[in-house]
Amino acid sequence: MAENTHPLALVRAAAGMTGVDLAREICAAAARRGLRSGVDKQRVRKWEVAGVKPDADSQEYIAEVFGIPLELVDVKAWPSWLPDAGMTPLGPASTVPALREALRASMERSRRFVLSAISGTALITLAGTWAAADAWLEVADRTQGKPIGEDLVVLLEETSARLTSVATQERQHTAPLIVAHLATVTDLIADGRYSSALGLRLHALAAHLSQTVAWHRFDHGLHGEAGRFWIAGLHSAHASGDRDMGAAILSDLAYQASWRDDPRTAARILEHAQSRTQHPAARSLLQLRLARALAAQGERSATLRALNAAEHLLNTPTPDPVPAWCSWLSAADLAVDSGRCLLDLGDTSQAHRLIAEGQALLPPSRDKTRGVFLAYRAQGHLIRREPEAAAADALEALELAERIGAPRCVQLVHDLVPAFAPYRAAEGVPELLHAVV
Fold this sequence. Notes:
437 residues; mainly alpha; 434 Repressor (Amino-terminal Domain); 4 domains; globular
């Protein structure tokens, strides 16, 4: 039997729904409006198999079922407004399907199945849904399944913390173990019997592990997988009501969009992310990433406003502890990212000064970030027509990235190579060009 690849069928399956389930949810959406829908599983099948187009009311109900903002529904464009295939819509009971979709996608890569990155439209839709919806009461006492005790959850938490905090150069070896932990946590959430308190901790752990795996995939250029793991983490954080973690993951998706030369999508995602998080450090990071997206679009005034906001927020005192996901943010990051923004805006002298300042402030423990900063500084030297200094920074960044296993930083250096073409005779350039071959 051929697989049903209609977008509605894929979205429904990703949400763990049968045709009967979808029909029932559509009827419930109509009932909430005091109306009646005659949709049944046969009608759903006609939409998915026979190409029948749902009427406007039914499309509105479908959007509600999958948590899609009504302003994104284009009745005439059915079914193109539905989320990308493979991206589980945010909604009730969506956490486990989202986690399993990410894990499945990762396993399919080993069978040479290539995943594309999720479209900007779908990511903006997801961010809008997250910003508009309160958390579903998904984390509650579970009375069926195999019992899960405190000791097991503590073991998973402690082991996961150790795996995700090893030295930078060792992290390239821990990725399979982290994925295995995430798969175990997913199975426990899906099939275990536990208290609501343990359920909250399992969802928090799933969000943290998903985010960690996503960054590993992103650093290796596996953008389709990275996006799906970040989205799985968003589902986990949302189900437990952790708005700060949700904003963190959305900001990661925005960072990925900027990296993939889609700053407009990044800015739209960050607008939604900022709407539901309050801690000054968290908001500072979101403003800093927004500045990067705005600078890439040449929006000088807006970029400078975002940078000023990021600096002000970073220095704002608060009695609340800094969320773990942004505890690394420092004056070094603010300086370098500000410099990177100014490079995009053409202010090369000020940009170079800020990048050098941030490089000096960075602690030795953040080797991967140091490699990225060195690549940025090399770009600044090239813009200033200082090939010798640029080659020295680029070569240092390359050697550091290869030692710690940071392919994203390696790619940054490779991307600079064409700009060295006019300076092949300059000191250090031949050595750099030989090293990148």
